[in-house]
Amino acid sequence: MILFTFWGYMDDGFVAPMGKNEAVGGSDQYTGLTDCNGVKIFEGDIVYLAGVGATGIEFPFIELYEALYENDIGAVIGNVYESPELLK
């Protein structure tokens, strides 16, 4: 099964997770991995990776899988839609 999170823009300009039929923004694919707290990691999430810092997750998820091999995946700390400032 392939999981996606759908994002859309609300009238007030904020971005929020939407239902499948409401999606007007994009959709983010599940990576198949979880963070150190058991939270599923999706494309577009910002995850703390040891030795790298805050990292935006993008397909093909190479940095994320390298971090998995090194056991360096921290917590999901936000996503690129709601918290892009975390990447600066």
The helix fraction, in percent, is: under 10%
The rough form would be described as globular
Structural class: mainly beta
Low-confidence stretches: 19-25
Radius of gyration: 13 Å
**Into how many domains do the coordinates divide?**
1
Beta-strand segment tally: 7
**Strands across the major sheet, in which order?**
2-1-3-4
Please give the alpha-carbon distance between the first and last residues. 34 Å
Report the total helices.
1
Strand content: 35-45%
Name the helix and strand elements from N-terminus to C-terminus, one letter apiece. EEEEEEHE
Largest sheet: 4 strands, antiparallel
What is the typical, i.e. mean, pLDDT?
A: 80
Overall description:
Residues 19-25 have low confidence and may be disordered. The strands form two sheets. A four-stranded antiparallel sheet has the order 2-1-3-4, with no helix packed on it. A three-stranded antiparallel sheet has the order 6-5-7. It contains one helix and seven strands, in the order ββββββαβ. 18% of the residues are buried. The chain has one domain (4-87). It has 88 residues and is mainly β.
Identify the notable features of this structure and list them briefly:
single chain; 88 residues; mainly beta; 9% helix; globular
Summary of the model, kept short:
This protein has 1 helix and 7 strands.
Layout of SSEs?
Layout: E1 4-9, E2 15-18, E3 27-34, E4 40-42, E5 45-49, E6 53-56, H1 62-69, E7 73-79
Antiparallel strand pairs: 1-2, 1-3, 3-4, 5-6, 5-7
